[in-house]
Structures are given as structure tokens and as C-alpha cells.
Specification:
3-stranded mixed sheet; alpha+beta; about 110 residues; GMP Synthetase, Chain A, domain 3
């Protein structure tokens, strides 16, 4: 069960991470990175961010690049939330493939 504090921090991190990725993907035309969910651990030390990447063919490559620059992303996030959070949690990024799963089910149902 997620506490109210965890939920508020999750929403804040999701909003700010979305803005960071929007600014970074302006440079790469044709790629969209959106943060679908952020889950924060009960001790607020780890945040798991689930990313939806379009087009899905480049998803693994972009996720690898994001994971490689996780410290930079965390620093940018810390600059944005420095007045709301005392300590910024460690970031872990995962690929949210729920849209691909839904698309696959639709294709199977059409057959």
C-alpha cells in the first residue's frame, strides 16, 4: 500500500522527469519519451521510472542511453525539486511496454 507521501513524491518526480525528457528529446527529432509511472520505495531512497518510448524500434537503444546518463538526469531532477525534496532518490529506469502489449492483443483479435 502506497502512502500519501509516496504518491505525492511519485507525481512530482513523474512531472519533472517528463519535462527533462521532453527538453532532451527536442534535439532528437522523431523520438518521444514519456514517463508513464514512477514508483517510490517506502523509505524514499529508490524511484523506479517506467518509460514509454516511441518509436518502439529504438526503445532499447534509447533506454540504454538514458541508463548511462542516469546521474546527469538525477542531477537535473535535483535542481528542479531542490525546494520540495531534501534528498533525491536513486533513479532506476524500466521500459513500459504496455502499449506494445495492447497493440499485439488487438492484432491477435483482428485475426
Amino acid at each position: 500500500m502506497e502512502s500519501t507521501r509516496q504518491a505525492k513524491i511519485s507525481r512530482l518526480l513523474q512531472k519533472e522527469l517528463s519535462e527533462i525528457f521532453r527538453q532532451q528529446t527536442v534535439k532528437t527529432h522523431g523520438v518521444i519519451v514519456s514517463v508513464s509511472t514512477v514508483r517510490v520505495s517506502p523509505d524514499l531512497s529508490v524511484a523506479k521510472a517506467y518509460l514509454s518510448i516511441f518509436p518502439s524500434e529504438k526503445a532499447q537503444e534509447i533506454l540504454t542511453n538514458i541508463e548511462a546518463s542516469a546521474k546527469t538526469v538525477r542531477y537535473e531532477l535535483a535542481q528542479k525539486v531542490r525546494y520540495q525534496l531534501r534528498k533525491v532518490p536513486e533513479l532506476q529506469f524500466y521500459l513500459d511496454d504496455s502499449l506494445d502489449y495492447i497493440d499485439n492483443i488487438d492484432k491477435l483479435l483482428d485475426r
